[in-house]
Amino acid sequence: MSIYNFGQEVIPSGEMSCENISARIEDKFVESICNLVLESLNVRYEERRIVKPLLMIVISEKINNRQSKNPGLLQQFEAYILETSSKRFIEEFNLENTKVNHEHATHAKFADIIKAIKTQHVIDDKES
């Protein structure tokens, strides 16, 4: 079972947005979890057309919820991974007061870190 191809281009033709790709991966994750549950419980094929949509709704609410007041498990895990990976940049480039901007879209979460690196190390935006 695979929802993401490591090290390979994952943008389907016609799609450009990082957010679209992220949402699709999260939806694929929820669907994969539902399929695992259905297989584990040996739900018959005829019954899956009824059980799977219900299971998807129930599981999706807990696992994939982008509301900031009540984030899903995937969003909490994403925040943990971003926080953990950002520590390396913050320590390496000595950016003590810089944080991951969790309130923004996925593609913008590292924006403050990138800005601080450019400012501290005098990187011209025209070079990047």
Question: Could you explain how this protein is built, in words?
Answer:
Helix 1 packs across helix 2. The protein has helices at 18-40, 45-63, 73-92, 111-120. It has 2 domains: 1-64, no CATH class; 68-128, no CATH class. By secondary structure, the chain is mainly α.
Identify the notable features of this structure and list them briefly:
elongated; mainly alpha; 128 residues; single chain
Summary of the model, kept short:
56% of the residues lie in helices and 0% in strands. It has two domains: 64 residues, no CATH class; 61 residues, no CATH class.
What is the H-and-E element order?
A: HHHH
How many structural domains?
2
In round numbers, the mean pLDDT is 81
Would you identify the regions where 5 or more consecutive residues have pLDDT less than 50?
A: none
Number of strands: 0
